[in-house]
């Protein structure tokens, strides 16, 4: 995997927004997989700025969700559908028609998971999948010991993830759903270009285990080592436990610019 160390979250957001811009210029109807949470917000802000300045035409872009809480009422402001509408679809000026996600309020959750996994394939597959990382090494909501071959399915959040996400629910863990629908690790690995952004010292351990540890389901993000074109963008704080940080810096500094991410 390629590891790019950037000074801060803003620089990471800008770099990844540039990669999305390059993708949209060669494939205007690219399917972009989006993550929620705090980390990707600088990407969405940088991309929105490019669209508003006319530097990027995202009008034909298609957007798909990575994961969703199970059981939140439709329209709940913290459902990931609402978050993506608010942070991505509306700022980019897209319509809901260009957006697909799993149905977290379906009565038959398993059928909803299978339908979503199939819909991603039928849509031609995800061109670029944005990912954050949990402090426990999860991608999507594939918590530790998720099968590396998993498909979209229901998962139970760890206590740590519910604690981490309580900030979106009035700091009240009781309001954080226990169950989620998430693209599986096998599903994520089918995307043409997974791009993980990690910022802040709290992610440094998970990043080091992902990049420099063995591939192991106990660190789900380490599965990205199996992808032929995975990119991990980290700020200095998130890179602080990487033993090979200097090598990653030198490699990226010497990379021909035309290659992009
Ligand atoms: C969200 C998601 C999660 C988050 C991760 C990090 O759609 O899939 O894997 O990316 O929990 O969250 P933040 O960015 O809030 O630290």
Automatic annotation (TrEMBL):
Do the record's keywords include Hydrolase?
Answer: yes
Q: In which pathway does it act?
A: Amino-sugar metabolism; N-acetylneuraminate degradation; D-fructose 6-phosphate from N-acetylneuraminate: step 5/5
This protein's GO CC annotations: cytoplasm
Origin: domain of life: Bacteria
Q: Where, if anywhere, are coiled coils annotated?
A: none
Q: Does the keyword Hydrolase apply?
A: yes
Family designation: Belongs to the glucosamine/galactosamine-6-phosphate isomerase family. NagB subfamily.
What name does this protein carry?
Answer: Glucosamine-6-phosphate deaminase
Give the originating organism. Answer: Streptomyces sp. NBC_00148
């Amino acid at each position: 995997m390629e590891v790019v160390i950037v000074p801060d979250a803003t620089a990471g957001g800008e770099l990844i927004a540039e990669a999305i811009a390059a993708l949209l210029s060669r494939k205007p109807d690219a399917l972009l997989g989006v993550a929620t949470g705090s980390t990707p917000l600088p990407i969405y802000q940088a991309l929105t700025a490019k669209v508003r300045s006319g530097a990027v035409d995202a009008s034909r872009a298609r957007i798909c969700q990575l994961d969703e809480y199970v059981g939140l009422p439709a329209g709940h402001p913290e459902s990931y559908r609402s978050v993506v509408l608010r942070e991505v679809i509306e700022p980019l000026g897209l319509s809901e028609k260009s957006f697909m996600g799993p149905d977290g309020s379906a009565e038959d959750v398993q059928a909803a998971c299978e339908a979503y996994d199939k819909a991603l394939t039928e849509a031609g597959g995800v061109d670029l999948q944005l990912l954050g990382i949990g402090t426990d090494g999860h991608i999507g909501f594939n918590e530790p010991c998720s099968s590396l071959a998993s498909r979209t399915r229901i998962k139970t959040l760890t206590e740590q993830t519910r604690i981490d996400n309580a900030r979106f629910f009035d700091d009240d863990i009781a309001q954080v759903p226990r169950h989620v629908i998430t693209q599986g690790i096998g599903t994520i690995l089918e995307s043409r270009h997974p791009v993980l952004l990690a910022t802040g010292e709290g992610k440094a351990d998970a990043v080091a285990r992902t990049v420099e540890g063995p591939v192991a389901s106990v660190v789900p993000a380490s599965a990205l080592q199996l992808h032929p074109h995975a990119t991990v963008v980290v700020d200095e704080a998130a890179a602080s436990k990487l033993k090979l940080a200097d090598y990653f810096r030198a490699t990226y500094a010497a990379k021909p610019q035309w290659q992009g991410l």
